[in-house]
UniProtKB/TrEMBL annotation:
Organism of derivation: Flaviramulus multivorans
Bilayer-spanning residue ranges: none
Cofactor names: Mg(2+)
Record family assignment: Belongs to the PEP-utilizing enzyme family.
Protein name per the record: Phosphoenolpyruvate synthase
Pathway(s) per entry: Carbohydrate biosynthesis; gluconeogenesis
Catalytic activity annotation: pyruvate + ATP + H2O = phosphoenolpyruvate + AMP + phosphate + 2 H(+)
Coiled-coil boundaries: none
Function, as annotated: Catalyzes the phosphorylation of pyruvate to phosphoenolpyruvate.
SUPFAM superfamilies noted in UniProt: Glutathione synthetase ATP-binding domain-like
EC top class, as a word: transferase
Alphabetically ordered keywords of this record: ATP-binding, Kinase, Magnesium, Metal-binding, Nucleotide-binding, Transferase
Amino acid sequence: MKKLVLISLVIVGFILKGFSQKVSNEAITQQIIQYKKDVRGPYKDIRWFCTDGSIRQPKDPCPDNIGPGVQHARYKDAVVSLGKTNHIYLGQILAYTDKNEFWDADNNHSRLKQYQLDKYLRAVDNGWINEKGQFYRGAIQSEDEANWGIDFYKWLLAKDENIEKHYFLIRQSLKDIPHNGDDNLSQLIRSQSKVISDEFIQFMDLRVKIHSQPEASDIEKVIAFKSKYGTQLSSNHKNKIDELVNTMQKFYKPIDIKSLVNKSSLFKNTPIGEKISSYIATNSSETKASTLIPETAELLMAIRESILDEKRPLARLQLLDLSLKLEEIVFKTSPEWEPENLQQMLTKICYLGMATAGSGYIELSEWDQINLKTPSENEASLSLEALTNVLENARSLVEWSSSMVKANYQNTVDLYTDFEPKAYGFIDDKIRGSIALYLGENVGKLGDFIAKESALTNKVMDIPNQSSFRGLNPGYAFGELVVVDGSPDDIEVDSDNIYVFQRPPADLKPVAGIATVSEGNMVSHVQLLARNLGIPNAALSDENLKSLKKYNGQKVFYAVSNKGNVILKSESNMTETERLLFVKKERNEEKIEVPIKSIRLTETNILNLRDVDASDSGKLCGPKAANLGQLKKMFPDKVVEGLVIPFGIFKEHMNQNMPNNDISYWTFLNVMFAKAERLRNEGVSEAEVESYQLQELEKLRAAIKEITLKPEFIEQLESDFKNILGKELGEVPVFLRSDTNMEDLKDFTGAGLNLTIFNVADKDKILDGIKAVWASPYTERSFKWRQKYLLNPENVFPSILVIPSVDVDYSGVLITKGISNGNEDDLTVAISRGAGGAVDGQSAETYLIKLNGGMQFLAPARESLYNSLPATGGIQKKQATFEKPILNQQNINEIRALAKTIRKTLPKETHSDYEGAYDVELGFKDNKLWLFQIRPFVENKKALSSEYLESITPIIDKNKVISLSKKIN
């Protein structure tokens, strides 16, 4: 009783504070606990809402002379307040909601998505916040909700733009928003089976089957389960199993295709109406899945391609409802189509892919690029190379469809997961309810078939669907396996462990090895560090990650070969050769030294970017400024003006005494390193030494952020800022880019380790930003990477590149090499919308571009928010949609020409003997190309040439011919 009173006081307390203060996740959790126990849930009472705006008591209906009105509940005051403070809307009643506010376009459609998530939580958690309130009669009137739903879709579907930009979201919302359509029985089956397994653990195996490979025969399995465990099941459990069986029987009841006529009454005489009529006439008696699925997939695609031709909102709604019914047909019948040979398997994959695209899980432009086709009639065989290309395309389609779900819902799920962990299952449920589930299963079978034919077989513990693993970067590691099935951002990583993530964290600290479901993109800072340092890195599926969870915490050996096959085995199964790879080495072996012989710390004047070039790298400034200065000379109209704060100014400031200390910043730093070395020589463990160093660096970093900037430095900064950038300091937003002498060494890239401050305009913030950039090499993450790979980490000097912001439409990275295929003559381009694209691990639009023409689309961008740079400074988040590719042909042609020029002229201009690839950061504003950085593209040569990695890399005969009539099993 005391606890209930306390919870009530928490909620009342938060109401009394008013609507201005954001509510903590802990307080929201307590609210939810309270609502679960309340017979009214999140509602306080029921009222009549009349046409004239008046509100009347439940027993006092709206009189006829002012209109009929609707009856429903009102929200508790705390629920209303939560919407105002946190933009969180619990227990939404549609009849109570303005259509525009529900669509919530300014907040990435959050309210609509929350409504869907609320429905999911109620299904898997016994009503969730309405656990007791499910029986609060009159709170929600189903007829009023359905009428509101129809009005909402009439309003929403009247605009072509909504359908063009949000086809997937709108179509998914139809499964949850009542509008006199069908119930979402597929989701109900999954939620009912989850509830049973949560309460009766013996049901877990059957639940896994229902969730991962659902088919009609599962009904008999559930009935048999009830019979087997009858004596152990409570009457409540038996009732729930009966409800599940009833739902499954409804769902798997044969679809009467003739009944689809009722869903196509509004467009009988239109072109799409004729296709629908033909489909119904042809397939009304069809029971063969191998015939029905291709026909259905083609109609799904036709509906999607033609929906904009139909201008009537209600007709569009009917088309979308019909599309959902067709998707259900494919979903139900897919298990019945069991290909016997390779040709049938390729045909099935093609049509499941088409159905996936027609259902909105990828964009139409992406389907055009994926190039999935059925074998032609005159084809009797395919080469192994051609077959592998089909596999890669099909695998991409599976990945892109999953990423479409995540891109649309991840932000909302993350918001709710912080106070309701059960919300995390929503995305998985959405994916499992899609055709992509069966597409992925069949692609996995094709992958297994090709693996046997090519001897390129993954060996990952004993988990199923191993062909879904795909090596991204060669290397090997030994350590504890850590499987992270959630957000990685709060995970404290250990450099000796091997991590499996849903997505890679942008600020990853040193690890032994990584594998990710969402690989981000192949040229993000994380991926570049992995390539440079020989850290094994692979992509895997959601299903793979879940299968690996049982090995969490075990010591494992992990290797990725030069061709991308993956090995993951327990310590006990390691060979002697594999054990010898990890015999303890001398501490300094394989480390590199930061060159400081030619550094010029006597230069204490700010430099004009025009006056530096590549020859100044590591002497006056870091490679960012030096190389950008070089680019300014080579491409003057493609590089902004800029200032460079050289190493000498940093060192001059570091020679000052620390606050409340009689030694300088620089002396403090070197005393710390000297003591660390002494501790090691005394036998103190490396972990203790590192802990000491990090504590001292924290003190140093805090002190540098408060360092007194010399008056003569500020005076010159103000003068040069106006002379070079054209306006007073504080009137032009700029980037402050850390640029150290540890970056882009021959065998080490410091990509992304130190601070870049985005778009800062205010004078005081610029000055504080300079101090923060100077302090950034001493952060834990930056120090750990340096300490692990550098012999003299104390000799790291930061310079700062100051350049005006360009509010680009899109930006990213060009690598003058084909990363995916290793071809030195190709180009890799990864582009994201807005500023700072691709480098931080965003899901980027990625291409393999041939220098002499032609290209391959590797991945779409799937980030729902992107960075815009307002002239007032700071970062503004804008919303993205995915219906159109980011790059156009003009952009691609310009990138191709740029790469040719760089390859031909940069070594000459810099008098360099460097022959490798380059890493170029660029962006486009109104189709004009801007260059922001160029650096050598550093790969770990040892990993690429390791004898062990060569030994596990099979020799593949790409020209091997495989008959299409060959049995698939």
